[in-house]
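Hi C.,

You asked whether I'd gotten around to modeling the 332-residue construct. I have! Everything is below, sequence then structure, no commentary in between.
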Amino acid sequence: MRVVTPVSRRMVAGVGMCIGVVMMPAAAQEWRPAKNVDIVVASGAGGSSDRTARVVQRLLQANPAFPSISVTNRGGGGTVAWTFLTQHPADPHYIATFSPTMLTNQILGIGKLGYHDFTPLSILLREYVLVTVNAESPITSGQVLLERLRKDPTSVSFAFSASPGNHNHVIIGMIMKAAGVDPKKAKVVIQKSGGVGATAMLGGHIDVLVGAPANALPHIQGGKARGVGIGAPQRQAGALAGIPTLKEQGIDAVFFSWRGFIGPKDLTPAQVAFWDQAFAKAIQAEEWKQDLEKNAWAEDFMGSAETRKHLDREHEVMTRMLTELGVVPDKR
């Protein structure tokens, strides 16, 4: 997870997949939606998963192959949404958002469902984790944050969404380790969505918000919040250009989330091929490029086959990292 794949390689892979889809036998492309497609969001409204779903809904609606597309928020840290998806086996009219939370839920024993229980369809983007505080907070930098934690680990409350052990939680653990403090001593408050977390941070109910940049950027730009650091290997462009990395402040914390879509188990090759083509076409739209910039996302497109391989690798990496952070339950 900490080795960043160049966007250019993803773009080449996306173009190659588009060509491959075009060259597939006609029989493999015969399926298309016969009714409304429901995008099930694995978090509450206003968060990153919700934002991703609604952007993709808009882009897919431009494709005449879709009769209509709806978005349904089911939250529950992912477990409710993914359980709902299992109730529609072999039905490609239902897809759901997913992120590293699906892997961490299973690794930590929070949920029993894993990616093997579904049909991985795509990963569209990556999103670096941003650490943000209220503009009036005495925490003015990463170093100040470390000093506070060294004096009293429980004096700082961290908010993130939407499930323990996810990528946001991992960053908090990395910050605690950088301060020389046991990650299990972190005072965390789990929110229903990143939007709810941002509201709590602005209201002074929690000290530090850890999550997607898009949830905090409008408040940073409006002078109501301050970006303490971002978990990227180097400074980012655009709206994030003025925010230092955690790494340059002496905090060894480089981490990002990926976001994509899964379908129910037992989809046919024709149905998977349709979704491969639909997502590949959607990210060619100029609007997608604008959405990437607006939400501080980085394109990281993978089709169904590459997504499956990525998840195999990611599960191994996440298991190791969460074990190192001491959050994986002892099964002895």
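If it helps when you're writing up: The two ends are 28 Å apart (CA to CA).

Thanks,
B.
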